From TrEMBL:
It is found in: Cell outer membrane. The lineage of its organism: Bacteria, Pseudomonadati, Bacteroidota, Flavobacteriia, Flavobacteriales. Pfam families: CarbopepD_reg_2, Plug, TonB_dep_Rec_b-barrel. Coiled coil: none annotated. This is SusC/RagA family TonB-linked outer membrane protein. SUPFAM superfamilies: Carboxypeptidase regulatory domain-like (SSF49464), Porins (SSF56935). Residues 115-221 form the TonB-dependent receptor plug domain. InterPro entries: Beta-barrel_TonB, Beta-barrel_TonB_sf, CarboxyPept-like_regulatory, Plug_dom, Plug_dom_sf, TonB-dep_OMP_SusC/RagA, TonB-dep_OMP_SusC/RagA_CS, TonB-dep_rcpt-like. It comes from Arenibacter certesii. It comes from the Bacteria. Keywords: Cell outer membrane, Membrane, Signal, TonB box, Transmembrane, Transmembrane beta strand, Transport. Residues 1-24 form the signal peptide. NCBIfam families: OMP_RagA_SusC, SusC_RagA_signa. Residues 378-929 form the TonB-dependent receptor-like beta-barrel domain.
């Protein structure tokens, strides 16, 4: 009986299993549009969490799908569809482009809007449009991609952040870089996000868009959205690349034989110093990410490792970054929680950029080691390295790199939790809490045998060690609510909120020297120093900020009438502890109006013809804490008697008022945007001389000055070819900016010292009210040389030649504008081609109208007799008759350039029969492949700011002046050309 029952049960179970197998099947297929496959499209079984994303070829596979199930297929910019399986195992779907794709949601700060409704200048760059190849700085993903956004890392030092300017100079006494917002965290660090983890970047360019961020929006806002998990099975992605870099260009100098022929001192050897201190740099990148989810809870975890070695020996970094994001729905899907956490550790080797300078200028006949010298200059004092003693600014470049160490360690940790609750279908509340901590440690050590900075020849000090540590802590809490409603033809949205932020930082600096011998390393150098009898070489300082707090209340109203007329207005009231007691609070209003004219004109084949105008007021905070208070400097351990500035309780924010007019047009394959803007910046935060009868110190920090910027930006994109076999899209952006100084502390002054040797009193940049910023000012070389000296043009025809720059401040003098440090036009040209599985991306970039002062030529091109122990710069502009060094128009060069900035070729493999690997893609790319320019220096890219001749040895604290563009200093890194091989695998 039992056996019969078991037999029946087994038969019933088998029948049920067979029936289940018949009902549950595997379904595969493709998702494409009219021109080809759509990778990343979402395919989900309706009513379940069973889903997947299409691979590089638009392919998808789903298991355990009922034969009567319905598939939900969607992709951004296309109409979603529902497809009944009806027992089929293969489903191929062609999606139709959504005529309302202009309703694509765009993040604009404290919420989002459809693209069509935006009334301000906002540019969206998605990951597929980022710059390719080896990108270690996230900002360089955008280089040349956004009209009006200038990003330059002059020379390409791997340890330096790029200089970022949006629509020219936006501040003189405050931070002039855009505000960074990452996943809603205002003021987050761009260094704490790996380029591989970024999904898209939105740039808020004008005041009407940035005003919602108040006192930190004057320089524009960059909104970064990182990648997140998507519903479906577990997906594992690996991407890796290997890059090799070589010097792209450097300043031409004489060979050893040319140097001797020209009268240089022959020390008996023949060395290529540049070859000795440089290498072929390499960068290795490995990235692994795991993502997935069930629709309610989605996740993504990633780990990134970068090992970048620069072209200068002992320069580069090793960086580990990890990021996790989890999103979940709870409370009947009314509460959405997004949690993000990231950590970055970077260990840097800064080396010494001066080694590149001396590699060009050090006597090419000098031996590397003292033992190789025919003059028997060998001495253990210099660690065996030959040094040319008694010469100013002359050091053995290989000794600099090999004997000394200059390193840093940086840790950045950020977490954020965002809670979004739907009170009603049209009413939600959002709360964000975040904290970010940064710790930086820099240290350098110069051996007792180091002639460079170690002062091995000094009778009083041998060796040097420095330590700098900085800690920053940032906390943020924001709460805001949004209500949406429709009344007849009007759709409107109202947002109101509160923001609280606090930042604290402290740092300390310690320097010691005069070590007993060269047997100690950096790690115990400081310990040795505390026991030294000579305490004169002990230097210590520290700094701690008070609670740097910002509190704000903000609101925004957006309305759409008849789906064609758009209105936006916002107001932020913000207070900061950095302001004076009488000016703690500021108001920042914005208003924008737009209209889709085509809604009423109904032009044939036109999707959009929108005009918009916006006006907004933004601000900028003081660069440091406590500037509104009296400042003191210590002396003999006392502060009270050393007041350096007086208090200013009325100190306020820098203010920028900007008006922007824009036109957007889209039809079929063509889309274009034009923006014209004008902005006024006032109330710079500057330390200035004041009336000593009122203020005892005669100095205090005040608001003073005005500047005006104007310009235009054009973005044009066209699908030249678009069919199933071949796609070719080309996009061009062009921008122009002009900035004039309207008012300043003084009507006219000179800045930008050329420096030593012998030209410390030569300032080259004129700052004058009513004139454009960045004017290079000096005498004009006539082309004639008399007794080794340049002859200058008598500009005012008075028969007298003024050679003193102080006299040149007289408008009737003989100096004139020799060039301008900022470009008139900047250009980016993108070309994207796809043929079958192959794709090609060529990106060109250029800047035109700017000049650079070639300081290498100004110092080392003249055949100065006393300079016979230094190598000579030997460009095509060199004049061997000149033997006296003096700055003139001869050393100011037009630096227009047009370069192939990035060329990448990729191939995607078809893996239809593989159940384990979803996609494989290989790429080969080159960066900075060629540059068309007449500039004879290493890098023609603009120098948008200047740190002067002060050398801080790679340590923090260097002050940059945005009013001094156009000086190509001698301590710049040399630009490199990079070749990269990349591999992407999706499991």
């Amino acid at each position: 009986m039992k056996i019969r029952f078991l037999r029946k049960s087994f038969l019933l179970f088998g029948a049920f299993l067979c029936f289940g197998i018949a009902l549950a099947q595997e379904v595969s297929g493709t998702v494409s549009d009219a021109t080809g496959p759509l990778p990343g499209a979402s395919v989900v079984v309706k009513g379940t969490t069973n889903g997947a994303q299409t691979d590089f070829d638009g392919l998808f596979t789903l298991n355990n799908v009922d034969s009567d199930a319905i598939l939900l297929i969607s992709y951004i910019g296309f109409l979603p569809v529902e497809v009944s399986i009806d027992g089929r195992s293969t489903i191929n779907v062609v999606l139709t482009e959504d005529a309302q794709a202009l309703d694509e949601v765009v993040v604009t700060g404290y919420g989002s809007q459809s693209r069509k409704e935006i009334t301000s200048a906002v540019t969206v760059v998605k990951s597929e449009d980022f710059n390719q190849g080896t990108v270690n700085d996230a900002s360089q993903l955008l280089q040349g991609k956004v009209a009006g956004l200038s990003i330059y890392n002059k020379g390409g030092n791997p340890n330096e952040d790029a200089v970022i300017r949006l629509r020219g100079i936006s501040s003189v006494g405050a931070n002039s870089s855009p505000l960074i917002v990452i996943d809603g965290v205002v003021g987050a660090s761009l260094n704490n996000v790996d380029p591989n983890d970024i999904e898209s970047i939105n740039v808020l360019k004008d005041g009407s868009a940035a005003a919602i961020y108040g006192t930190r929006g004057s320089s524009g806002v960059i909104l970064v959205t990182t990648k997140s998990g998507t519903p479906g099975g577990v997906s594992v992605d690996y991407s890796g690349s290997l890059a090799l870099s070589t010097i792209a260009n450097h300043v031409d100098v004489m060979t050893a034989d040319e140097f001797v022929t020209s009268g240089g001192v022959d020390l008996g050897s023949r060395n290529d110093w540049l070859d000795l201190v440089t290498i072929d740099g390499s960068t290795k990148v490995n990235n692994v990410s795991i993502s997935g989810g069930d629709g309610k809870t989605n996740y993504r975890f990633s780990g990134n490792f970068r090992d970048a070695q620069g072209i200068l020996r002992e320069s580069g970094f090793k960086q580990f970054n990890t990021r996790a994001s989890v999103s979940t729905l709870t409370f009947n899907d009314k509460l959405k929680i997004d949690f993000n956490i990231s950590f970055t550790n970077r260990k840097s080797e800064f080396s010494y950029e001066e080694a590149l300078r001396y590699a060009l200028l050090y006597n090419p006949t000098a031996p590397v080691f003292g033992k190789d010298s025919p003059f028997q200059f060998d001495s253990p004092t210099f660690g065996g390295y030959f040094e040319t003693l008694g010469l100013f600014d002359s050091f053995n470049p290989l000794s600099i790199v090999n004997q000394n160490t200059n390193t840093g360690d940086k840790n950045e940790f950020t977490y954020s939790a965002n809670f979004n609750y739907d009170i009603l279908d049209n009413w939600e509340v959002n709360a964000l809490i975040s904290q970010q901590t940064n710790k930086l440690t820099n240290q350098d050590y110069y051996r007792t045998t180091s002639h460079f900075r170690g002062n091995a020849t000094s009778p009083n000090r041998k060796g040097r060690a420095r330590l700098y540590t900085e800690n920053r802590d940032f906390k943020l809490f924001e709460l805001y609510s949004t209500y949406n409603q429709s009344v007849g033809l009007i759709d409107f949205s109202v947002t109101g909120g509160y923001s609280w932020q606090q930042q604290n930082q402290y740092n300390y600096f310690l320097e010691m020297g005069d070590f007993p011998n060269n047997d100690i390393e950096y790690i115990n150098a400081l310990e040795w120093s505390q026991d030294l009898a000579n305490a004169g070489f002990i230097n210590a300082s520290s700094d701690a900020s008070p609670d740097d707090r910002i509190i704000a209340f903000f609101g925004r109203v957006s309305a759409t009438y008849d789906n064609a007329i758009f209105f936006n207005a916002s107001l932020r009231r913000e207070g900061s502890t950095k302001f004076g007691e009488n000016n703690r609070w500021a108001n920042f209003p914005a208003v924008g109006l737009g209209a889709d004219l085509n809604h009423y004109l109904e032009l044939n084949n036109v999707d959009l013809l929108k005009v918009r105008v916006g006006y907004g007021v933004t601000g900028a905070l003081p660069a440091s804490n406590g500037l509104s208070r009296a400042l003191y400097t210590p002396a003999d351990g006392k502060l009270s008697s050393n007041q350096s500035t007086d208090a200013n309780p009325d100190l306020k924010w820098e203010e920028k008022a900007e008006t922007n007019f824009g036109v957007e047009f889209k039809m079929d394959r063509l889309s274009t945007t034009l923006d014209i803007y004008s902005r006024d910046v006032s109330d710079f935060i500057l330390e200035r001389d004041v009336d000593v009868t009122i203020y005892p110190t005669g100095r205090r920090v005040e608001n003073a000055g005005k500047l005006r910027s104007s310009g235009f930006e054009i973005a044009l994109n066209y699908d030249i070819l678009r069919n199933e076999k071949f796609k070719y899209n080309s996009g061009v952006i062009v921008s122009r900016n002009k900035t004039k100084l309207k008012e300043y502390l003084t009507p006219q002054e000179m800045r930008g010292s050329l420096g030593a040797p012998g030209q410390n009193d030569t300032d080259m940049i004129r700052i004058k009210e009513g004139e454009e910023i960045g004017q290079i000012w000096g005498p004009v070389f006539s082309g004639e040389v008399v007794d080794g000296s340049q002859q200058f043009v008598d500009i005012n025809n008075d028969g007298q030649l003024l050679t003193n720059q102080n006299n040149a401040l007289d408008p009737d003098g003989d100096f004139k504008v020799l060039g301008k440090g900022t470009p008139d036009f900047e250009l980016g040209w993108t070309n994207q081609l796809q043929f079958g599985n192959w794709d090609l991306n060529a990106f060109f970039r250029g800047a035109f109208g700017h000049s650079l002062i070639n300081t290498y030529r100004a110092f080392y091109e003249p055949r100065v007799g006393s300079q016979g122990s230094y190598n000579f710069v030997n460009t095509k502009l060199a004049n061997p008759e000149i033997t006296n060094a003096k700055f003139s128009s001869l050393y100011v060069e037009k630096a227009d350039f047009f370069k192939l900035d990035n060329l990448s070729l990729g191939y995607t493999f078809n893996l239809k029969e593989n159940n384990y690997i979803k996609g494989i893609r290989v790429t080969a790319s080159g960066q900075n492949l060629f540059t068309i320019t007449n500039y004879t220096g290493s890098d023609p890219e603009p120098a948008l700011q200047d740190a002067g001749t002060i050398d801080n040895g790679g340590f923090p604290g260097t002050s940059y002046d945005p009013l001094i563009p156009g000086i190509d200093r001698r301590n710049n890194y040399f630009s490199s050309r990079t070749y990269t091989l990349g591999l992407n695998i999706n499991f």
